[in-house]
UniProtKB/TrEMBL annotation:
Keywords from the named record: Amino-acid biosynthesis, FAD, Flavoprotein, Methionine biosynthesis, NAD, Oxidoreductase
The protein's name in its UniProt record: Methylenetetrahydrofolate reductase
Catalytic reaction annotation: (6S)-5-methyl-5,6,7,8-tetrahydrofolate + NAD(+) = (6R)-5,10-methylene-5,6,7,8-tetrahydrofolate + NADH + H(+)
Source species of the chain: Thalassoglobus neptunius
Cofactor needs: FAD
Phylogenetic placement of the source organism: Bacteria, Pseudomonadati, Planctomycetota, Planctomycetia, Planctomycetales
EC number in record: 1.5.1.54
Amino acid sequence: MRIKDVYEKSPFGISFEIFPPKTEAGDVALLEGLQRLTARSPDFISCTYGAGGSTQDRTLELCEMIQRDFQIPATAHFTCVGSTIEQLNNWLDAADLRGIQNFMALRGDAPAGSDSFEAVSGGLKYANELVELIRSRFPDVGIGVAGYPEKHPEASTMEFDLDNLVRKVDAGADAIFTQLFYHNENFFRFRDELERRSVSIPVVAGIMPITEFARIKRITAMCGAIIPDGLAGQLEAVQDDAEAQRAIGVDYAIKQCQQLVDEGVRGIHFYVLNKSEACERILDAVQIPRSV
Ligand SMILES: NC(=O)C1=CN([C@@H]2O[C@H](COP(=O)(O)OP(=O)(O)OC[C@H]3O[C@@H](n4cnc5c(N)ncnc54)[C@H](O)[C@@H]3O)[C@@H](O)[C@H]2O)C=CC1
Ligand SMILES: Nc1nc(=O)c2c([nH]1)NC[C@@H]1CN(c3ccc(C(=O)N[C@@H](CCC(=O)O)C(=O)O)cc3)CN21
C-alpha cells in the first residue's frame, strides 16, 4: 500500500511516527509499543532518520521489521543532511532492496550545535530536490512531505513558505504531513491557503499528544509549534505531577482530534515517538469514520 492509495481508498488515514531507539531498553519498549499500535491497524508507520549517519540504516531495518513482522506498510523518513547525491541514491537502492515503498522526503534539521542547515558539496539543499530525485529513480513509490501551518522557523514569511511547499507538491509529493500543532485554527487557515493555491493532494494533520511538559517544551522549541497559553498554564500548574500532565495532554488532544475529524480532515499522523499509551487513549475516545 502506497501513500497515494491510502487516502484514495480510506475515508480517513491513520498513521504513526516512531524513531529508532538508541538503547536496548528503548528497543524493548518500542517492540511492546508496536504490538499495541499495530493492533489499531494503522495505514502505515513511519520511522525517522537521524542526522549524521548513525540511524540511517536503523531506519531501514526498523521499516523492514514493521512490514515483515507486523504486515503494516512502513514509510522511511529520508533527509538531505550530510549526504552527496551518490549516497542518497545508494540509500534509496538499499530501501528498494528491503521492499520499502513509501518515503517522507525532508531536507532535515541542521546538526545539533549548528543553527543553520548547510548542504554538503554534491548534495541537495531543499526537500523539493529530494522529491525530484526519488521520483526520477522510483516513479511509483509513495512520497510524503512536511507542511507548516505555523510557518517553518527559517522561512521569512508564510507566503514564501507556502510557495516552497507548492514546489514540493509540484515535484511529485502524494500527501502533506503537517508539523505538530495545537491551534486547530492555524491548520484550517493553512488548508484553505493550499486550496487557494490549487493544491489537491491530502493535507494530513500531525498531532503530538503532550505527555510531559518538559519534553514538549524541548520539542516545540526545536520545531516552532505554538503551545496555547491556556494549555501551557494548566500544565505549568501541575509541574510536579506526571499523571496530571498526561491527563491534561490527552484530554486536549482528544478534543483537538475530534474537531479535526468533524471538519473533514483527510487523516491524522500521530507523532507517537515511541510512547504509545497517549495515542491509544485518544484513538479510544475519538469518533473516526473507519473501523480501528
Ligand atoms: N516528521 C519529521 O521527521 C519532520 C521533520 N521535519 C524537519 O523540519 C525541517 C525542514 O524540512 P523540510 O520541511 O523537508 O524542508 P524544506 O526544504 O521544505 O524547507 C526548509 C526551509 O527552506 C525553505 N525552502 C524550501 N524549499 C525552498 C526552495 N526551493 N528555495 C528556497 N527556500 C526553500 C522553506 O520555506 C523552509 O524555511 C527538517 O529539519 C525536517 O527534518 C519537519 C516536520 C516533520
Ligand atoms: N524540525 C523537526 N525535526 C524533526 O525531526 C521533527 C519535527 N520537526 N517535527 C515532528 C517530529 C518530531 N520529531 C522527533 C521528536 C523527538 C524525538 C525524540 O524524542 N528523541 C529521543 C532522543 C532525543 C535526544 O536525543 O535528545 C527522546 O527520547 O527524546 C524524535 C523525533 C521528528 N520530527
